[in-house]
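Please, structure for the following, as C-alpha cells.
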Amino acid sequence: MTRDEILNRVQNNNQPNDEFERDTSRKGLLYGLIAGVLACIVMIVFELIKNGKIEFGKPVILLTIAGISSIYEGKKSSGKKLLWAGIVEMIFAFVCLILYVGAMFI
C-alpha cells in the first residue's frame, strides 16, 4: 500500500456518522420529545384533578426544548412542517411561562 492509499483509508474510516446512525439518533430524540410531551400532559391532567390547579413549570421547560429542537431541525432541513410545529410549541411555552409567573403572584 502506498502512503496515499493508507491516508485515504484512514480518512474514510474516520467519518463521524453514517446516514443510518444520524437518522436513528434523530428519530430517537424525536420519540423522546414526544414521550416527554405526553408525560407532561398526563402530569398536568393529574395535577388538575388532584389539586384543582396546574403548575406550569414543567411544560415551560419541556415545550421550550421541543420547540427549539423543531425550529432548528425545520430550518436546517427546510421542513416547513417542523418549523411551524416548533413555532407553535414556543408559543405554548411562552403562554405557560406567563401563567407560571402569574401564579407566583396570586
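Residues 19-51 form the longest helix (33 residues). The chain is about 85% helix and 0% strand.
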